[in-house]
UniProtKB/TrEMBL annotation:
Swiss-Prot/TrEMBL GO biological process terms: chemotaxis
Residues in coiled coil: none
A GO MF term: hydrolase activity
Presence of keyword Mitochondrion: no
Protein name, per record: Chemotaxis protein CheC
InterPro entries tied to this protein: CheC (IPR007597), CheC-like_sf (IPR028976), CheX-like_dom (IPR028051), CheZ_family_phosphatases (IPR050992)
Keyword Transit peptide tagged: no
Residue stretches making up the CheC-like protein domain: 12-48
Amino acid sequence: MSKLDLEHMGSMEYDVLREIGNIGAGNATTALSQMVNLKIDMKVPKVELLEFKELSDIVGGAESLVVGILLTLEGDIDGMMMFMMDKCSARHIVNLLMNLDLEELEVEDFSEMDLSALQEIGNIIAGAYLSSLSQLTNMTIMSSVPYLSIDMAGAILSVPAIEFGKVGDKALLIQSQFGEKEKEVNGYFILIPSMNSYEKIMSSLGL
């Protein structure tokens, strides 16, 4: 197979990436619904292949405060994956999970218990994405223990940019919205496989 060129991808390759995003987001929504024991609606996710430097603008700017859950990937593909939420969205999910008043704790900082819940939420959502990718490609994909960080988007995104900037500067961004309008949760799933792994994914799907 010829080397995959991320700068000049065909419509078929983009369709495959979008399908990976759609299935992953659907699995993640189901997992989240089961976790909080509520029906959660999901809008059609927006799937884009972006440069690292564009990612922070999508999540509200480099200085916006976000919750980031970072995992490294091993097995048939390697790379990193990250699930990010703005702080308000993270607060909503924690409150839902712990049956807390959705208005009362709007501005408070996260407690140790909240952070533990966030890590578990991130683990389950990331696991749902990985599981769908694994089933779709018939590849074995394992992840590290998730690392949780609450920081400015630019600082969190600098980690994969430094690590993978040397092998490419593109990341697959899947932007999902869950929940009701007044309590909408914006989630950003970022998949950063190595170039070799991108090629393996496409090859496994017959491209």
